[in-house]
Give the backbone structure.
Amino acid sequence: MHQSLVFLCLLAAIFFHHSRGDVGTAARYGPPFLPTACNGNDQSQFPSGNLFAAAGEGIWDNGASCGRQYKLRCISAAVSGTCINNTIQIKIVDRAQSLVSTPSLKGTTIVLSNTAFAAIANPSATVVNVEYIQLEEMIKSMGLVVYRRQLIMIVSRIIQQSEKMKEQV
């Protein structure tokens, strides 16, 4: 019984994790989208599904953010019920400060295409609070996920072996 309790505590500790993402704000914008600060008039820069965004100054990184991909979700808004329980993947194609079209609000962390914004929030909203993580950072943390799975298997085997030993005694 004691070992089962220890195992459950270990599992809880393994699966309890804090968010690894950052929190910021997201506005929306519509066409025209060209030219962009990243790739000018190249239409091929836009991902299929139109889930793209312009980077605010906090993530612009002197243009290094061009092409970066983020997982993003709406976490709250001024009006309750604005967020849609959905996580999307977006690609940075522009700089928010130099957009050709006007965003719904200036000075946000990220400005999403209307399509991307509508995938996470009521499209009539001006701005929402978002949690986001760059995919590269997410991939780096995958090693930790593998480690958790291996640890669970090891602890499970230890408990099974100890229970077998008890039965033999």
The radius of gyration is 22 Å. The domain at 22-139 is CATH 2.40.40.10 (Barwin-like endoglucanases). The first strand starts at residue 22 and ends at 29.
